[in-house]
Structures are given as structure tokens and as C-alpha cells.
Amino acid sequence: MIIGLTGGIGSGKSAAAAIFKDLGIDSIDADDLARDSLKINSKGYELFINEFGEKYLDENKEINRELLRRDIFNDPVTKLKLENIIHPLVRSGIKAFINTSKSDYCIIVVPLIYETGSSKLYDRILVIDCDVDIQIERTFKRDNQNKSEIENIINKQATREERISIADEVILNNGSTEHLKNSILNIHKKYMEILKNG
What we know:
Layout: E1 2-6, H1 13-22, E2 26-29, H2 30-36, H3 43-52, H4 65-74, H5 76-100, E3 106-109, H6 113-116, E4 124-129, H7 132-143, H8 147-156, H9 160-165, E5 169-172, H10 177-197
Parallel strand pairs: 1-3, 1-4, 2-3, 4-5
Helix pairs in contact: 1-10, 3-5, 4-5, 7-8
């Protein structure tokens, strides 16, 4: 069984995935795959240079992600070119992960399931949800971005209602890590029950 775990920025997706890992469930984060796909000397890196030249390279020949992020935020064409490089690499990474996963079910953390219309790729969708002011506060603490940048990102993502509309399970993650753990434990039991009853 393949679970797509999604949620807005700062909702607690990574924390949720870590708790599933503690329960012995394999998980992979599409954002990590995307980041790794542009590492120096990788296939994605070579494709990136072919497409964009050396415009985005820093003095160490690594991709200046800050500059790239700014440009794709303001330019849909650059964003699409980048996605055409990264998405196929992420998809094949996820496929390889699913094929080698040994746990009872596996978790794929994908921030943009609703936005990419890819919910059909998963057996179940788990949404980690939280209030917008909490999203802003958590992201501010974590990334040190200014609040208007964070609000901008939130506004470009699906709304809470849109995400919840594709969910099989929803965890409201406004509270403590303990609350998140207990919610995940209950969902884990539910998934194991589903698997048992086939």
C-alpha cells in the first residue's frame, strides 16, 4: 500500500514522516529527491547545464538555489523548464524506492499532490493540516525567510480546503509533537487493519 503524505509548507510533513519511520515504515521525501537530482555531476545537473548554461552556478560550480528559486518564482517558463528536468528524475527515484521498500506499507512525502493532480498514484492520501498562522510561524523559525515570502509561498500552494478534498485521512497538526505522534499511531493502526482485511 502506497500512502501519499501531503500538506502545505510548515504543516509538519517531515515530522510526521519521521514518526512513521520510528514505527518501522519506509518513507521518502520527493523534495529531498528533487534537491539531490541537481547535485553536482549528477544526471540532473548535466541536464540542467544543457538547458540553462552556467548562469545559475556559483564559484564552486554548484547550482545557486537561492537565485534559481527567485527566478522560478517570478518566471513560469523557467519554472516549467526546471520541472521538466526534475520531475522525471523524482518519479524514477520514487519508483525505485517503492520497488525496494520492505515495510508493510510505504510513505511518499509529496507537497504538491493536489497541485499536480497526482492523487491517483497513491492508494491513500494523508493530509497534514494546520492553521495558516502556525504554518507561517513554523516556517519562519525553520527557514529564516521573511513573513511576506512565506505568505507568498502559501498563496501559491493549494488551499487547505483543496488539499482536504483529496484526503482519505487528515491530521490537524496545530498542537504538540505528542499529539502528532498519537494521531499517527491511530492512523498506523488503521492502515495495518486495512492491510489485514485486504
